Amino acid sequence: MSRDIDLYWKAYLESLPELVLEPTPEAEAWGDNPELADELAALIVAGTKTATCSSLWEWEFYEEPLPQVGTKTIVLNSQDKPMCITETTAVTIQKFQDVDADFAHAEGEGDRSLETWRAGHWRYFTRVLEPLELQPTLEMPLVCERFKVIFKL
User: Fold this and answer.
1) Nearest Cα to Cα of residue 28 among 65, 101, 78
2) For the domain that residue 91 is a member of, what is the CATH number?
3) pTM of the predicted structure, to 2 decimals
4) Domain that holds residue 87
5) In sequence order, what E strands does 3-140 have?
6) How many domains are there within the chain?
7) What is the torsional sign of CA 126, 115, 142, 108?
8) In this predicted model, what pLDDT tens digit does every residue of 78-135 receive, in sequence order?
9) How far, in Å, CA of 112 to CA of 134, rounded?
């Protein structure tokens, strides 16, 4: 963990009205490339992006625990600089084809339409699933997460 991340987490803890001791949460850039990481971080900080999704297959492949309500994440940009801290407010599993316009809008990307969401996420899942020797399908289960920004400098 970098010194910047540790200092950012300490600033968050110091901003709380009462003393709370929590371990530093996971810090990560979102997306699969530097440009996307910067774009998504900016949308999150601006409050435009309040939802995200990932393929359940990735979680299973890497044997990672799914996010839970209350999970905190330090969002990084492409330079590993902390941009904000989010807290998960809801987690559901949905098929790709069942994601609705409300969720697509909450993802905050492009024109925020369901059509744009489907096209962009199909391309994204094609890229991230290829190393796992998988391809996206309409039935593909997604981990759909809603979150709020709880801290930003």
Assistant:
1) 78
2) 3.10.400.10
3) 0.90
4) 3-151
5) 26-29, 51-55, 72-76, 82-95
6) 1
7) positive
8) 999 999 999 999 999 999 999 999 999 999 999 999 999 999 999 999 999 999 999 9
9) 27
